[in-house]
Amino acid sequence: MPRTLPLSRRRLFSVLSAHSELAVILGGPFSGKTTLVDTWLATDPCPEWAPVVIPEPAHDVTPETYWATVASSLCTSLGVDEPVAAEGSFDSLCSILVRHPRPVMFVLDGVRSVEAIEDRVGQLLRLGPQVRMVVTSRAAGSWAELVDGHPHRTIVGDDLAFTVDETAALCRLFGLARDQRTIEWITRRTEGFAAFVAAVCATLRAEKPDRVYGTDALDVLVDSTVDLVVMHVVAADPSLALSSRSVLVSAAPNTVTESSISALPHIDDSDAFLTALTESGLIEACSTDGDSTDGETAWRYPEVVHRSLLRVGSAEYPKELWDARSALIDYWLQRSRPDIALEHAVERRDWRCAIDIVEKNWVALYGSGSLRSLGIVLLELLPDDMTTNDRTVASLRTITRARNKAGEPEQWAFPRSFETILRLGSLRMQGAYDEAMEVCDGLATEPVPNFETLDGTTRHAHGLKYLNFGTVYLLGGRTTDAGTMLRRAHTAGRGVFVEREAAGKLALLEALRGRTHEATRWIEEELRHPPIMGEAEALIRTAGLVATALVALDRLDTGTAFRALSELGTPRHTEELWAAVMYARGRLALLSGVPADGLLYIDSELQHFSHRLTGISAVLVDAARADLHLALGEARAARELVDSSTHPLTAPARARLRLLGGDPGGAEVIVHRGDAAREHCPAVGAELALIGSVASLRLGRRTDARRHLQRAVVLAEHAGVTRPFVGVPPSAVRDILSLGVDLPIDLDPAMVEYGIFREIRVVVRLTPRERAVLDALLAGGTASTIAKEQFVTLNTVKTQLRSLYRKLGVHSREEAIAQAHRLVVG
Question: What is the pTM assigned to this prediction?
Answer without folding.
Answer: 0.52
